[in-house]
Amino acid sequence: MVFLVAPHSRISKIRHTCRGTNAVYKIYYVYGGCYEKTIVFLVAACLFLTGCATTYKVDHDIIKQFHEPEVSADKTGLFVIRGSSFKGSGRGLWVALNDSVVADLPNSSHVYLELDAGVNTLNFVQAKAGFGYLAIDNQPGATLYAMVNYNSADPAKLAEFIEKDLGQTVVMKTKAVEPLQNKKNNDAYDNQLLNPGYLAYPIMIESSEEITADENHAVVRFYRPGKLIANCAFDVWNQNCYLGSTRGGSYFSVKLKPGHHVFIALSERYSIVEAELAAGKEYAIQLGVGMGWNQAHIKLLPIDLRSNQDLVKKWKESLKSTVVNQDTVESDPIAKRIEMGLSYMENTRKAVVNGDTPTRSLPSDFGM
Q1: What is the pTM of this model?
Q2: Is 163 strand, coil or helix?
Q3: CA distances to 32, 104, 163 from 289, in Å
């Protein structure tokens, strides 16, 4: 007999770890590029399921038989690998580069791709939800090995680059598939562009500096107090620039000119706040994260400081204060992604101006 206890009804992945005649399962929920781990308790005897994940180790004898492709100086070679694993084995896995799906990986397979050297993003897609985002930036003439890992308990390691010797070993032990002849649209491209915090760049850093409003500026603080998928980043923009990235248990502050501003965040769908900011005032917006259809449903929620000062004070005292790492956002890989993100949002900004998309309001008198 098996008893499952889980807080949500939609289950997208199951992890199976063999331990003698018993088993432990872990369930993961797809949320805008990240998985949230929830332990599920089983009381089981003599389970009939088999097929644990294969643990790969470097095999120097196999490597001797491997022939790495030659890559020209203007290209980057990339082996994308899906190892043998029980979890998720019955489902196909789309491999996407930038805005296109370029391969379909079954269980225990790999594909070799060549891409233009420069700024590139790899991600995986199942049920139109993206995950496992990896930056492949400015690697001319290199050959890289990236592997998806369903069994990782760390959202940042659902996909990762692996060392060449291990990569060559796993390639030799998996089946080669060809890239798609007809590319498909990457359903996760919008999230890829508008959430650069998904990538392994240090976009935000902790800071004890207090950012305050003055006679020429307002301050807006974006709080994310919730713990749901806390390790999954969700980023915030305004109408003409990138503002910052959030993780659960943190907040960041921005100093802005007074007047009309449009704040934008995206996961399953857009969440937009239209704000009227007054100089000398502080404003608060909560980034709430909830369950969506196949991705996290996030909300930018304006907070009226006139009636919520105690709540916001508690957040400021208990949450980690972060600021944008300017060195990172001004670097070539992130600066180009921000430029592409702003271009991609153009239609959304027009829809706000025309009143064609729902928004929430942050009026001037919500500030203190």
Answers
A1: 0.84
A2: coil
A3: 10, 30, 35
Q: Which residues pair with 223 in a beta bridge?
A: 251, 286
Q: What b-and-e string marks burial along 270-287, b requiring 16 or more CB atoms within 10 Å of the CB?
A: bbbbbbbbeebbbbbbbb
Beta-bridged to residue 303, according to DSSP, are 284
The dihedral sign for the CA sequence 147, 150, 154, 156: positive
Residue with tokens 């600021």, as numbered in its chain: 323
- Distance between CA atoms of residues 26 and 153, nearest Å: 9
Question: DSSP alpha helices (H): ranges in the chain?
Answer: 60-63, 164-173, 189-194, 309-318, 326-329, 332-344, 346-353
CA neighbor of 328 nearest in space, from 259, 257, 255, 233: 233
- In angstroms, the CA 283 to CA 218 distance is 8
Task: Pick the closest to residue 122 from 82, 68, 182 (CA basis).
Answer: 82
Give the amino acid at 194. L
Q: Which residues contact 31 (CB under 8 A, 6 or more apart)?
A: 129, 228, 229, 232, 267, 289, 291, 292, 295, 296
Arithmetic mean of pLDDT, 113-128: 94
User: How confident is residue 242, by pLDDT bands cut at 50, 70 and 90?
Assistant: very high
| CA–CA–CA angle 157, 160, 164 (5° rounding) | 145
| Side chain identity at residue 168, one-letter code | Q
Tokens of 144: 């890289």
